[in-house]
Amino acid sequence: MKKSLELKIPPAVVFLLCAVVMWMLASRLSAISFDILGRRVLAVIVAGIGISIGVAGVLAFRGARTTVDPRYPEKASTVVTAGIYQRSRNPMYVGLLLMLLAWGIFLADALAFIGLPVFLLYMNRFQIVPEERAMQEQFGDDYRDYMRVVRRWI
Fold this sequence. Notes:
Blueprint: H1 2-5, H2 11-29, H3 39-64, H4 91-107, H5 115-139, H6 141-149
């Protein structure tokens, strides 16, 4: 079953599912609600940073003329190492994670934050590890060298 989930569910769908679960937990089970001054502004700022990082990743892929569809890493035409990819091997996923963080801040309930580690663990196991395996097969030492220099997330 583990391999059957690899590269099957698009990251945007995983993101949306986590966001819905976070909302359901916050609205139905409301464990520990909190309210901090400027919570909504903070949520917008964190979401803006997440969107910016994600868009930078997409633009770098487009600029390199390689696939943006993470379900088919074997279709990659190059290893993108410029721009935001000098800081993170997965800026698009970092962007999604930051948007979930912003959503959790907006929801203002501690239980909602369960969505973040769920997203992180799912993405590592079923998306990133298989992507990295495919990239190593396709690009060999070039990708392994990149992995040694740049972190997976941040």
